[in-house]
Amino acid sequence: MGSYKDNHFFGSVKVGERGQIVIPKEARDTFDIKPGDSLVVFGKDKNQKLVIVKENVMRDFALKILEDLDSQD
User: At the top level of its lineage, which domain of life is listed (predicted)?
Assistant: First the structure.
């Protein structure tokens, strides 16, 4: 739908009766999300924001943090 530099707006989704959403095709294509991929969902109560991140991206991020901590020792 639109983007500004590295930020994207992919439209809106509806939550189904079972609490499921469909990630828009453009978002799946942009972030290479395939059937069977695991995603991590974070949220913030104060402003009711949700963030969805591919699990492998979070794992790589966590490993980088651990490596950085090791290098500080």
Answer: Archaea
- The whole domain housing 51 covers 2-72
Task: Give residue 42's pLDDT.
Answer: 94
pTM: 0.73
Dihedral angle sign, alpha carbons of residues 55, 31, 51, 23: negative
- Tell me the C-alpha distance between 51 and 15, whole Å: 15
**Could you tell me which of 22, 43, 17 has the C-alpha nearest to residue 33?**
22
CA 57 to CA 39: how far, in whole Å? Answer: 9
Q: How do residues 35-52 score in pLDDT, each as one tens digit?
A: 999 999 999 999 899 999
